[in-house]
Amino acid sequence: MKTEGQSCSEDLFIDIIKAYGRAGISEQALKTMYRMPDFDCKVSVRVYNHVLDALLAHNRFQMIPSVYNNMTKEGIQPNVYTYNILLKALCKNNRVDASLKLLQQMSKRGCPPDAVSYTTLISHQTNSIHALKYLNEMNPDLISYNAIINALCKQGMSEIALKLLTRILASGLLPNVVTYTTLINGLCNQSMIDSAFTLFKHCIYHCKPNVVTYTALMKGLCNEGNADEAIEVWNHMIQHNCFPNVVAFNTLIQGLCNNGRLNRARELWNRMAQHKCHPNEKTYVILLDGFCKQGNLQEATMIWNEMLDSGCSPNVVAYTSMINGLCRRGKLNRARQLVHQMQGKGCSPNTVTYNALIKGFCDEGQIDNALELLNDMLEKDCAPSTVTYNTLLDGLYRKGRTDEAYKVVDEMSKKGCSSNLITYNTIIHGLCSIGQVHEAVMQLDKMTAKGVKPDVVTYNTLIDAYCKQGSVGKAVEFIDEMVSKNCIPDIIIYTTLIYGLCQQANIAEATGILERSVKEGLTPNISIWNILMASISKNLNTYMPPELIDGIPCKL
User: Fold this and answer.
1) For residue range 171-225, what is the model confidence (pLDDT) as tens digits?
2) 198: nearest Cα among 207, 187, 189
3) Collapsing DSSP states into helix, strand and coil, what is residue 281?
4) Where are the alpha helices (DSSP H) in 58-157?
5) Nearest-CA neighbor of 38 among 76, 64, 75, 1?
6) Side-chain-side CA neighbours of residue 534 (13 Å)
7) Nearest Cα to 545, choosing from 524, 515, 501, 513?
8) If residue 386 lies in a helix (H) or strand (E), which one and from where to where?
9) What are the start-end ranges of the E strands in 191-254?
10) With 60 as the cut, is the pLDDT of residue 85 above it?
11) Count of alpha carbons within 13 angstroms of residue 94, beta-carbon side
């Protein structure tokens, strides 16, 4: 065009720059801008803005400052669109403090921030109080309100976000489906289901809920165990011609599986074709995992075969679910075959896969095979987790292989894998089971020193061990220790103590423990009364307070 003496307009260059941007070659867009003077076409702020936008779209953050500096050197004054691009670039690059400084400089440079400027900052602001402050400084539109509502909900501040709804209505704006859906999702994530339901009714009145709205509400209901209400929401969605997508199906299927409604989940899965919706990888994995955990291998196998027939290749999660199901049913050879199969398909087992296998072998008492799997993990650079070691410890202690258990604890420490409550409870139970109660108490001291708080299981294990040794006095001391550490004794602990005292024919103290449990609001169970009555029958001179006798059930 240049050789033919034809001029090129700014719009033509902008179209070329935009085309390069869409193609993902923003560097070429920049070169095009710098060639404009060769065609007697002046570079304007508008052109710079399109180049900066192209660079931002492909995260070329390092190039943006130099382009902006070159623009100012050429005497081209940036406008609000330029600044908004720079703000977004800083925010996307996690430089929120720098973006705040730029926002303050905009007004000083004669270019006041607009709604887009504030909305950009609000949507990337981790401090919701600052975000609310920006909102007070502007005349926000609905997009800005939605941005801050989203930021508040993400930070678990849905109640504050909900108050903004009143402000939106007072300003004369009408909330849209994005407003309502964001709030409903935020409220559900905070288990505020009643508020979410009320808001859903408002949404129906003000605007039509979409599939995302329904999905958020169904997920919240299922998470709270309200599967029946989630099904009602689903039916409402279908009745109002809002058609489900695969995410909606997956959400409700997941919720039904989590609530033990596997057959209902399967029925819903069968209906996907009616809605012209095809199961995806996640759908199959949800159902596989549900049936495997239920122990229904037959149904899980059917799902597995249907997944393969559909052309959907299992991922590591699908393989792990199936392996876990096989291990739960003691089908360890089939589980190992499936591991070889997944490796042959180029899918490497992860820590969760190995954990399922190790637990399977430990449950069957095949500890050597479980230890081989640990070595296999280490050889393949698959890092064992705390769960891995806890499972092995439990298996080793159950087999009385204490020395090897100590080695596993040492290796766990060397690998930087921290011990948790389950680790210590496993060790304490293992030591108590072989009569090493003193060593078990040392573990209690060790866990406390490391900031791991003992629970009812910890103390019950130790109390039971002392009672079996005949050291009931030491067992009783643990009750006061528990209370001092804010760990409330349960009826099982009191039952263990009463049994230990009755074994020593110490009915008076056993009765005292029983009275204490009643004063603490616990109801003695049949086991306690049976223990006491059996002991009293052997010691007929025993006195029991009348108020406790009145509490004995008529039928034991």
Assistant:
1) 888 999 999 999 999 999 999 999 999 999 989 888 899 999 999 999 999 999 9
2) 187
3) helix
4) 64-73, 80-92, 96-108, 115-124, 128-137, 142-154
5) 1
6) 13
7) 515
8) helix 386-398
9) none
10) yes
11) 0
